[in-house]
Amino acid sequence: MQELQLIDAHCHLNFNAYKEDADEVISRSLEQGIGMFVVGSQSTTSARAVDYAARYDGVWAIVGLHPIHLFEQEVDEAEVEFRSRRERFDPGHYRTLAERPEVVGIGECGLDYHHRPSRIDEGLFRSRQEETFRAQIELSLELGLPLMIHCREAHEEVLRVLEDYRRRGQVLRGDVHCFSGTRDIAARYLDLGFHISFTGNLTYKPRVIEGGNGETLQDVARQVPLERLLVETDAPYLAPVPHRGERNEPAFVRHIAEKIAEIKGLTYEEVARQTMLNTRRLFGV
Ligand SMILES: [Zn+2]
Ligand SMILES: [Zn+2]
After folding, report:
1. What is the pLDDT of residues 31-42, one digit of tens each?
2. Second label for 272, Cα 20 to 30 Å away, from 72, 150, 279, 281?
3. Would 235 be classed as within a structural domain?
């Protein structure tokens, strides 16, 4: 393996999209000096993330239960359709996984009000998500591991939960991944001490963010201090330009770092060096 230049802070090589060639994809990234965090979304993919991390230097695992796996539902993502299963968060099970030395964080966990199962009571839908999110925050506090937070159309509610912990004097750390919120929302996560990461959507045509003051995602990235930024692919989803529409992979994370450099008027090397340092510090790798 080459010395690492970048770490893709969030990818899913543990998903079926890589069933045939995950090892090739990992090797291709490591040969280019790109390490990665393989992120679990339920118990099966969390276990698989740990397996990959155990086999490769430069690959680490994050384990947790994604909010879309709490109820059975059809999920139609850009490239991958799947039926999510119903899982209840079992702290003992995830604690055992998370105690493995290859595991550097808890997640992805959070709230997702975008994907909605049919025939589920709205109150139950929300309360189950929040209680599962809180259980993973508790585990992260217990083990001293940072959080990998997923949020879709629920920033106010995620912030309410995080601010609640702060009020009680509990210090949480972590990354809010695939960020697509407004400038104000970003500022509130930063104020709580969180890092923010962007995916390939940062390389797409700028669009005004809903609920903001006319700012685009690129404007938000310009505002987030480089010291608080991480880069990620969220592969297999959201491949950056010039690979848009293809299956994404960690090696493409370079394009996110290049885009951040362009937006901030810095060199690629400056962005690579600082985001690497941020990722290493936050996750202790
Ligand atoms: Zn996510
Ligand atoms: Zn993800």
Report:
1. 999 999 999 999
2. 150
3. yes
